[in-house]
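Onboarding guide, step 5: your first structure request.
Type a short instruction followed by the sequence, for example:

Predict the 3D structure of this protein.
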Amino acid sequence: MKVMTIIGARPQFIKAAVVSRAFSQHRQDVREVIVHTGQHYDANMSDVFFEELGIPLPDYNLGVGGGTHGQNTGRMIEKLEGLMMEEKPDWVLFYGDTDSTLAGGLAASKLHIKVAHVEAGLRSFNRKMPEEINRVVTDHISDLLFVPTESGRQNLINEGVPENKIKLVGDVMYDATLYYKERARKPNLPRELDLNDDGFVLCTIHRAENTDDPQRLKSIFEGLGNTGEPIVLPMHPRTKAKISEAGIVLTNNIWVIEPVGYLEMVWLEANCKFVATDSGGVQKEAYFFQKLCKTMRDETEWVELVESGWNVLVGANVKRIEEAFSLVSAPAYTSSFYGNGDAGRKIVAMIPEG
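The system replies with structure tokens like these:
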């Protein structure tokens, strides 16, 4: 049996690595063909990246990227359709909510190839987010939906998805965290910054709703500056440019470092005091390391973390950011939200032949 895996961004490679390992260990009957759409060009995704993380190199790189959402999705569909007709996979497998995910689902479904979606069922209920449109459409054209959480399963049931398509398997990123935490390494950091005994807050800011809105961006950095906490901020070049355009001057408690690789990010998450972010994935990773998270968004797909007290939504509100930083007592920890670290094995076992 042949499975075509479609990925387009670095986080998807890490998720796919979990399932690829499970295929090699538990499904000798499966030949996996990995396709990188090229959606996100990442200078860190060299051969070293794949070697360090034990990730198979893509069989194909379509080189699509750099355009608008519509342009990219259309070009991907065209190239993926031709590749699927050539490779003739039995299943097409994809992850998350990128344009690559949507393109893979549309191309496969129109060719009547069976489709499996990992990380299905998540909802922010904010249709202004391109990711929300991608995940809703993809879920409704999928034959198998691998859901990480009970809330995701309930979302799909509420939307009328047949229950026999829905498989609650846990989160592949929990699998990844367990696998890579022993391989984590400390990034290059300013010597003046004392990082002993959880002595810093890890912060990431990249989401368009924050970086493209100068007022939101100013409010976020005002709030972060007012906390006085030592903050380590791996800064994406796009965020750096937006800060400059908005005329924002960072306070001296915010330590900007270059973007880090996944293994360095795991080290920062494991060793920080707590996390402040607008990322989706980092919210969960903070929880995996039993770190509180302050999320600079107005909503989140990971509602169980907010309901349990591990995550606080602060938006771009100066006062709420300041108040959230004073909350340092963590609730009781349970890993049951995201499975037992065997999501990859469950996924490959549930994909039927042909």
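Each response can be followed by summary notes, for example: DSSP finds 15 helices and 13 strands in the chain.
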